[in-house]
Amino acid sequence: MTRTMATIGTKWKPIIIYTIGKKKVRFGIIHAKMGIISKKVLTEQLKELEEDGIVMREAFNEVPPRVEYSLTQKGLELLPILNMLTRWNQKHNPAPSNQKPR
């Protein structure tokens, strides 16, 4: 468990993985969907996920430069686990009808 949490246990990494999902996503889209994360922290977290073999970064030689992120097979295997955690939370911590889910 300790090694697992060291790999994906930060505040942002599971949310980044969930946000990318099964598609290729540009940095700006990830940042916009996540909302409150700073660009600096998002960049650092994506770099760590890439180093751990969970995220793949693809840079295109274009003007302006374009970069897309996607999950590797290793990263895709995390999606069902994150979905199970989300369902567990919804079951045990239902959001009041007047509040947004956490």
Automatic annotation (TrEMBL):
InterPro entries: HTH_HxlR, WH-like_DNA-bd_sf, WH_DNA-bd_sf
Chain ranges of the HTH hxlR-type domain: 1-97
Gene3D superfamilies, alphabetized: Winged helix-like DNA-binding domain superfamily/Winged helix DNA-binding domain
Coiled-coil region(s): none
UniProtKB keywords: DNA-binding, Transcription, Transcription regulation
Protein name (Swiss-Prot/TrEMBL): Helix-turn-helix transcriptional regulator
Protein source organism: Chitinophaga filiformis
